[in-house]
Amino acid sequence: MQIEPIKQKCALLMRDVCKQLEAIHIDQLERKWIAISMLVIGLFVGIITIDAFFHGVNPPSKVETIDSASLHLNKEFAEDNLGVQADDKGNITVRMVAGRYSFFPKHISVPAETTLTFRWVSMDVLHGVHIPMTNMSTMIVPGYVAEITTTFPKPGEYPVLCNEYCGLGHNHMWSNISVIAKEDWTAPAKSPVKGGSNNE
Ligand code: CUA
Question: What is the pLDDT, as a whole number, of residue 196?
Answer without folding.
Answer: 46
